[in-house]
Amino acid sequence: MRWDNHRVVITAAGRDFGRTLAIRLADLGAEVFLSARHLAAARRVRDEIRDRGHQRVHAFACDLTDPASIRDFATGVAEHTDRIDVLVNNGSRYLDGPDLLSATDADVVDTISSGATGTVLTTKSFLPLLLNSETPDVVTMVSACGTPGHHRSDAHDAFYAAKSAQAGFTEILSKRLRPQGVRVISLYPPDFDNADPLSEEWETTPREAEDALTAHSLVECVLFAVAQPRDCFIKAFHFEQV
Ligand SMILES: NC(=O)c1ccc[n+]([C@@H]2O[C@H](COP(=O)([O-])OP(=O)(O)OC[C@H]3O[C@@H](n4cnc5c(N)ncnc54)[C@H](OP(=O)(O)O)[C@@H]3O)[C@@H](O)[C@H]2O)c1
């Protein structure tokens, strides 16, 4: 599927998986509105995409812990377009350490705020633009840590809390927005191999049954879900861990 008619918003696209999605979707023809916590990081990725010959890409600053910053991001995007077709809630701070006492209070607040509150407020801010689309989709990068009973990650408890909040939010939202035609698609990956899409490793990282999940395969999950006809509402992707 080509994405030429798709206008896509991606949070935290200054590096890693958000950047990967921005590059891959732009390569497929999408108009990309990408944000990063720092404008310089967003502009770097915008310029990388422009250097690949795609001019329909826009860079914004968005700190997911700051409601005003999220509103400004949505306002900025609305100055370019009256609709968006896909919102990718990618951003969420990771916090390591399986010991509750190992993190500062500030780390806990930041982790839960960026992942949980940030996802709710970003979706709220962009919903009016999504509702102007004939094919609106909200894609959220949750995590296996958002699955009830999951315990195999070394992530901090606050990260589990943030991901569980994202899971609860997208669960109810998928039911409540379905009558308005919005599909809410959530991915629950375990730790995955995050190769740079512009590196050789992107193509050469093994993707066999005994291998860890790759960003390459995750991108293909997103492409697949969005490409389905509207009656096919893939609500969640869960992955068996190796
Ligand atoms: N990588 C994995 O194995 C894995 C597994 C399961 C789920 N996930 C989820 O998939 C998504 C992408 O993963 P990833 O590996 O690319 O994540 P990552 O490498 O941990 O990067 C986190 C991203 O979130 C951004 N971020 C953190 N706090 C922010 C804030 N307050 N405002 C705006 N942006 C903020 C970071 O921006 P800065 O550059 O400014 O720090 C960075 O772009 C995340 O939601 C993650 O939880 C990842």
UniProtKB/TrEMBL annotation:
GO terms for molecular function: oxidoreductase activity. This is SDR family oxidoreductase. Keywords: Oxidoreductase. It holds the Pfam family adh_short. InterPro entries: NAD(P)-bd_dom_sf, SDR_fam. The keyword Transferase does not apply. It comes from the Bacteria. Belongs to the short-chain dehydrogenases/reductases (SDR) family. It comes from Streptomyces atrovirens. The lineage of its organism: Bacteria, Bacillati, Actinomycetota, Actinomycetes, Kitasatosporales. The keyword Oxidoreductase applies. PANTHER family: PKSB, RETINOL DEHYDROGENASE 10. Its EC number is 1.-.-.-.
